[in-house]
Amino acid sequence: MTVSIRDAARPFTGGALTALLSPATRLLGLGEPTHGVEAFLELRNELFRHLVEYEGYRSIILESDCLSALAADAYITDGIGTLDDAMSLGFGHHLGASPANRELLRWMRAYNEQRPPRERLHFYGFDGPLEMTGPAGPRPALTALHDYLAAHLDLAWSRETLDALLGPDQRWTNPAATTDPTQSVGRTPEARELRLIADDLRALLTAHTPHLTAATSPDDRWRADLYARTAAGLLRYHAGMADTAATRVGTLMCLRDAMMADNLDAIIDREARRGPTLAFAHNRHLQKDKSRWLLPEGWGPLAGRTLEWWSAGAIVGTRLGDQYAFAATTFGTRGSDVPQPDTLEGLLSALPDARAVIDPVRLTAVLDRKPTPRVPADHTYLPLDPATTGQTDAIVFVKEI
Of 145, 220, 325, 373, whose CB has the highest number of CB atoms within 10 Å? Predict the structure, then answer.
């Protein structure tokens, strides 16, 4: 069987991966099976350089705070601030500590320095301002949207009105609300009023598009729409935080990926005339099939429950069709965690290359049985489901991390 599997695999290169994709691809999602492993980020950097230099890609999107990413993009495109500033201000989820992320920004800035604006690379985040301790407050996004509109329109709400409804930021960022919905302010009368205002402001942004397009720059107009999406998404998420139903955590997963999908849509539209885009995130946020997560110990009464939700990739893939491609990454051995021989990762570990690209169609054709699902050694790793590998366009395998 190993010889047949070898027929479905090639040593990893950017060209070997893109050879498996539709030429119509506008968005390529590269997933990682776990966070915090530099090998996957280094592989991403290598792929992105190939995509830029040989495939016409001009942007990259990370699973990071969409608002913070503006600081990283300003450094990359226009040299605003320093690399240290971009690393400290331009990422969420503590991703600014990653050497591979630092190398990514350094390379993108060097690439852009001698190029005109229309050819420069752009950097985006597509996650909401959400951390493990809870979501950020809506103040930065909502007030930025208000200020943009107030400079050109007569609004029914003042900044003082917004500040009074928002109250202290600590009300919104209380970490106790992560596990206790009664600690959340997401369904207070003030929060409900703010959701209505955010919706009305976004409607004004759309209704006055001709005037705002003529009066402001395309970049300012795009950022205003980002603020509108983020304010509405955060207020919706805070309302979900206050939900006392047993389905609360699953609802929050759905809301997060819906926010991610909206951001992907907006970025793809913005980049449409410049070239395709690479998105990098966890496999569960980019896969085309339904995402599942078995909650581990430590989740109290929810431990052992399986959450299901549609990923941002599945949502956007429905809209884009063959213009969306997904490459799932997985690995073989990590320390004492060695895959069983009858699992997908165990079978792929017999390949001779340290990194390989596998054609899922050919792999399925040569296997005489479905591999046994891998049981992860810890909850930070979510293995590929062998039953759904046919819904991936490519599999990237790293033998050891």
Answer: 145
